[in-house]
Amino acid sequence: MIYFAIFLFLFLAWYFITKSSIALGLILGTVISVFMAFSWYVSLRRAYDEHTTNIRTGSATRVILVILACLIWYKFSAYINIFGVLLGLLLTYVLITFHAITTQIFRKR
Q1: Are the C-beta atoms of residues 25 and 78 closer than 8 Å to each other?
Q2: Cβ atoms 24, 72 nearer than 8 A
Q3: What is the model's pTM?
Q4: For residues 88, 89, 94 and 95, what is the CA-based torsion angle, rounded to 10 degrees?
Q5: How confident is the model over 39-87, as pLDDT tens digits?
Q6: d(CA 27, CA 49)
Q7: How far is residue 108's CA from residue 91's CA, in Å, rounded to a whole number?
Q8: How far apart are the C-alpha atoms of 49 and 28, rounded to whole Å?
Q9: Sign of CA dihedral 42, 60, 64, 26
Q10: Which pLDDT tens digit goes with each residue over 1-33?
Q11: How far apart are CA 36 and CA 38, in angstroms?
């Protein structure tokens, strides 16, 4: 979660300095991305605690959150860039991949 906070702080600083619509889209996408990651974590943790092989990943919740992001963009399309929203939404998957790679590189053998 610290990575999300760092990116969100950078995007907020960028927006307040430049008033860029791309930065506002990145902020929206990152906030929705945090909720998506939290939803996925809760679903995975619940499956781990119940010791079940049926793992629900919360796909419906993530789809609803993406639709919500698109509706917010549609309502405020003059202020928010859709490509920024898309990149913000993809931030979860980029950070998961980054964490997996760094864990494999720096793990103790």
Answers
A1: no
A2: no
A3: 0.79
A4: 80
A5: 888 888 887 787 777 777 778 888 999 999 999 999 999 999 999 999 9
A6: 33
A7: 27
A8: 32
A9: positive
A10: 677 778 778 888 888 899 888 989 998 998 898
A11: 5
Q: Are the beta carbons of 35 and 65 closer than 8 angstroms?
A: yes
Distance (Å, whole) CA 52 – CA 48: 7
Token pair belonging to 60: 């419906």
Which residues have C-beta within 8 Å of that of residue 85, sequence separation ≥ 6? 25, 26, 28, 29, 32, 69, 70, 73
Look up tokens 């919360």; give the residue. 58
Please tell me the distance from the alpha carbon of residue 54 to that of residue 45, in angstroms, as a whole number: 12
Q: Is 17 exposed, middle or buried (0-12, 13-18, 19+ CB in 10 A)?
A: exposed
